[in-house]
Amino acid sequence: MRIWKLLGVAGLAGVAAGSVVLARNERQRRAYTPDGVRARLHERAASAEQQPAPAPPRS
User: Fold this and answer.
1) What are the residue ranges spanned by the domains of the chain?
2) 45 to each of 13, 27, 38, 50, how far by Cα in Å?
3) What is the pLDDT of residues 16-43, one digit of tens each?
4) What is the residue-averaged pLDDT of the chain?
């Protein structure tokens, strides 16, 4: 019976840790300003245009 209690506590600790990670990522995502997001998207689009297109799969 004791092993089940330990597994339950470990499961709760895992859920709590996952929630902390998700909350931290959400705060970081919301910290961007609209201009900052737009600038990053433009940078990513420019770098994607510079890279060659992937070769089609061989059959």
Assistant:
1) 2-48
2) 40, 25, 11, 9
3) 999 999 999 998 888 888 898 899 999 9
4) 88
CA atoms within 13 A on the CB side of 35: 0
End-to-end Cα, the chain, rounded Å: 57
pTM: 0.47
Q: DSSP string spanning 6-57?
A: HHHHHHHHHHHHHHHHHHHHHHHHHTS-HHHHHHHHHHHHHHHHHSPPPPPP
- Tokens, residue 9: 């506590």
Say which amino acid occupies 3: I
- Give the burial string for 19-49 (b: 16+ CB within 10 Å, else e): eeeeeeeeeeeeeeeeeeeeeeeeeeeeeee
